[in-house]
Amino acid sequence: MSVMTWPSAPAASPLLRQCGAALGDRVLRLQDEPLAILKALYRLGALVVTTFSAGSKVSQNMHYPAFSDGEWWLESVGDRCRLRQSLQPAQWHSVLAVLEPTGPLPARSLLFLDRQGQPLQQVAVAPDSGGLAFEELVCAMLHPDQKSLNLPCGFPRLLRSKLGPLSELERDWAGSHDDEDFTQLLARCHDQRSVLYESVRDSFACQVRAETLPAVLGEAASRDSATTLCIGNQGVRLCMTAPWSSPRWQGNHCHLAHNGALVSLDMSQMHSLWRLRKPAEGQVVTALEALDEQGDWLWTLSAGEGEASWRELLRDSVIR
What we know:
Organism: Alcanivorax profundi
Protein name: Haemin-degrading HemS/ChuX domain-containing protein
Number of helices: 8
Number of strands: 17
Strand order of the largest sheet: 1-6-7-8-2-3-14-13-12
Structural class: alpha+beta
CATH topology of one domain: Heme iron utilization protein-like fold
Low-confidence stretches: 1-10, 155-160
């Protein structure tokens, strides 16, 4: 099978447009050294870190660790909860410092952008924390050019992909024992997951109705069952395991909370929802995965405290 697409240059995000309009006044451009700035964040004390993705947003109160060279991840474990954040340093490109409130961005915050100008994370200093460390960091890393953002633009290009016969696809799917193996399988269709999922049988990937997600989240909350929610973008991947609160709805947004972490899922961005079965650590794991209209990944919901109880919850909640 061949797949041809023409990905266009991404449109500037609303956050980037607002920051560009305030550049040199309320917003300052910092040097294009996001990793050095990330390493300095642990000096700022309590932070409110917001991670963006196409269809979700996660805000959490945290202290950044002192990152070591070659170690771009953090993990924290609490009572029935776990957080793992993995960074892809090559995707982090530029940083803006917000001095005064700008659009939804609070004062004394940093906005990290990827190579297409899309927001990766926003880091805000808590009101009673940081001291002069934020101002010192901004002054030390100030960029000499405060008139332009100098973000690169993408260009259209033709993508081709040969997925191979069904038997070969399913054999490689069944042999993918970890995320790295599955990523190689997805590379055949340039991460257009819907193309892959539509090419295999229901025992591997089965599309379910959108109403399944609120049903599963509501049932998990009523049973006080922990689930694992993974979201992310080009530069950050967050996986959070917790007994989430009952979903709270505000228009198309589904809000979940646990112990200082707030998750907002934009259901209007979800074009399809899939039940997946993949091998992992000697067993087959089941997950729900949401995709957007282009077939790109939005978020994944999977087992929290045990695969058996998770499958029982799905059996009672999945709507096909």
